[in-house]
Write a structure and sequence with these properties.
By secondary structure, the protein is of the alpha+beta class. It has helices at residues 12-24, 43-48, 67-78, 89-119, 127-143, 157-172, 180-190, 196-213; strands spanning 3-7, 28-32, 56-59, 62-65. A hairpin with a 2-residue loop joins strand 3 (56-59) and strand 4.
Length: 214
């Protein structure tokens, strides 16, 4: 059984799936998509995913897109250990809440900055966009108050969802030293064996964005 993932290493949602698969010990056949070359608009891909987004998972003909949906699917189907996505209804609700924070606030803040840089050759980041990212940091700092992990006392899909987005935002709007909880959370994650699944694409994104803004 081979899980095919249509992917782009620099994409935070894609790396969230990479992290999940790494922890679960799942092998992915990564099919690289170049958004600059509009691979996502090819008819064969649009047929799989009408929203033509990455990541998109093909599990033996079962097609799923949206990183959070894919992560939940992988844990539910392939993991005997439910610690990343416990069956307790309240814990799951908190995980979903933080995933919605990722997709509803954190990731859109990233998109609003990065798209003009990539496609309009913007060389500066508007103050309004910086303020939006700072709001994300303010909320996350509060979420982590008195906690090691985003959704409670242990690592869950909430952390794996937000970690790639927040570390990528840091490349665009540096996380101020005052955000001790966020800094500690990222440092905690970066020491774990699976973090390399985020680091490679993150480093690639940082190098590319620095070159574009130079």
């Amino acid at each position: 059984m081979v899980l095919k993932l249509y992917s782009l290493d620099t994409s935070p949602p894609v790396r969230a799936v990479y992290l999940t698969a790494e922890i679960l010990g799942l092998q992915l056949e990564r099919i690289h998509m170049s958004l600059m070359n509009e691979d996502q608009l090819r008819p064969e891909f649009v047929k799989l995913n009408p929203q033509h987004t990455v990541p998109t998972l093909d599990d033996d003909g079962k097609i799923i897109w949206d990183s959070h949906a894919i992560m939940i699917y992988l844990v539910t189907k392939y993991s005997k250990d439910r610690s990343l996505y416990p069956e307790d209804p309240f814990t799951r609700a908190v995980i979903h809440q933080k995933q919605h924070f990722d997709s509803g606030l954190a990731f859109p803040a990233f998109i609003r900055i990065v798209m003009p840089i990539l496609f309009e050759k913007a060389k500066t980041i508007p103050q309004s966009s910086i303020d939006e990212v700072v709001t994300v940091y303010d909320f996350l700092e509060t979420f982590l108050e008195g906690k090691n992990w985003v959704a409670g006392d242990f690592l869950t899909l909430a952390d794996l969802s937000l970690l790639p987005t927040i570390t990528t935002l840091d490349c665009l709007v540096a996380i101020d030293e005052k955000y001790l909880n966020i800094k500690g959370w990222i440092r905690r994650c970066s020491t774990l064996s699976w973090y390399h699944a985020n680091k490679k694409g993150l480093d690639e994104f940082r190098n590319r964005i620095n070159n574009l803004l130079a």
